[in-house]
């Protein structure tokens, strides 16, 4: 392999001649052989880093720190990365020491070498345009890296929100389809009172819409930005006026209306916003897991379980039992939720151990949050396409269960009181008699009046339209 020799503060480093990254990245590749997951696995983070470097070059040009030719080359390189090119060059491991410095330097080196080529120079000829002196000018990993994480989380959460919206719409469609399918509701896995299958699916839609709102509220907290704070929030090496210019430029480049943090020292060390986002992701994950567990229960059997709904068969469920089909799609979502809940614990531990003026553990925070969002997005898509949209109601079984359920006795309470209804229910359970027959045989009610009450209990109750939530 042909190499070029680059030099950093520790000495000479051989770098592949074809690489756009440089010495610092080369050392990181040797030091951090941990997860095998490169930063490029999180394209939103790569794009966010390029946007920050783009905005910084614009601000530095306006301040006269970079000449227009240098700034243009840097910005063009950044734009290529923003457009999805060269992401494979962001190769450092997501798990790394140094509070994200290796990721920041990976970006600086790739952008510098792309810019050098645009200026007619070869990769590594940093005397013409340097990764730190030019691309990283007026910046520190302390402010660029957390800002990039916030931008990336904004982009990723927007995609998750759209997918959750599609899943909620699919559940609402099932609510409309099953609006007249009567069934028995359950509490503590025991028969409760009648409802419709449509109401059950409308409730799934409503809980998803609630979480969409909470997630978007969380992303609003990501708009507060420490860019311009440089090392530990002091603003050291940043030119006067830089912060205002770079934030304005970043808002333009990213389309995200960022604003400065009130206290840059606090903003540099505090990761509370990431804990908040993690908590919201866990909430969403657990909601999705609960829905998935309900679908597994409702489809259980198919002969000796609940058997109320039929999930689309996706693949054979056993290597030995013929005809067995498992609820593999809801099971997948359950496992995603387990991972997201574990990631929340990781974020909590990382936040707790960020001592003094900087949190050194933002790399693992960034990784697990972006992974959680990606998995939730993909899981929601799979749950919608391969499960929710194809669910069928087992109408015959549901009708038989509802007609025979002692839960109907609850409807008689206004006429015969709780004790009377309880006695009727107990007798029905003991000998299997119909509720209506027991009521009339005990002369508790006129048969027609009892019939009317029981019928009213199983009439579909319309649920408020949640489509505008």
UniProtKB/TrEMBL annotation:
Membrane-spanning segments: none
Domain Fumarase C C-terminal: 408-454
Domain of life the protein comes from: Bacteria
Metal-binding among keywords: no
Domain Fumarate lyase N-terminal: 12-342
Pfam (any one): Lyase_1
Designated name of the protein: Aspartate ammonia-lyase
Protein species of origin: Arthrobacter humicola
